[in-house]
Amino acid sequence: MDFKGLFFSAEGRVNRLSFFLLAILVGVVFSIISVILNLILPASAAGVISAVLYVVNTVIGIFLAIKRFHDFDKSGYFMLAFSVIASV
Questions:
Q1: pLDDT surpassing 90 at residue 29
Q2: Which of 74, 75, 59 lies closest to 9, judged by CA?
Q3: Phi/psi at 87 (nearest 5 deg)?
Q4: C-alpha neighbours within 13 Å on the C-beta side of residue 56
Q5: How many whole angstroms separate alpha carbon 86 and alpha carbon 32?
Q6: What is the rounded distance in angstroms from the CA atom of residue 4 to the CA atom of residue 49?
């Protein structure tokens, strides 16, 4: 499976270990990029790019969670229901 299909597709399944490792990998990589940008760029530009990275990280997390629900033989819409319940 390619990276685009792994991180930006809701099709397929991800087991527990793969979900954990991919979530950690994405978080660490985006954190390192954000720290490097904060050191190199002015605060306003680094803030904007960090915000974009945060949104991309959130989207990747949603797709990984949908795939994890598929591993439980549940619909990806359970992710939406879980998010609504967890936010209350």
A1: yes
A2: 59
A3: -85, -10
A4: 15
A5: 28
A6: 20
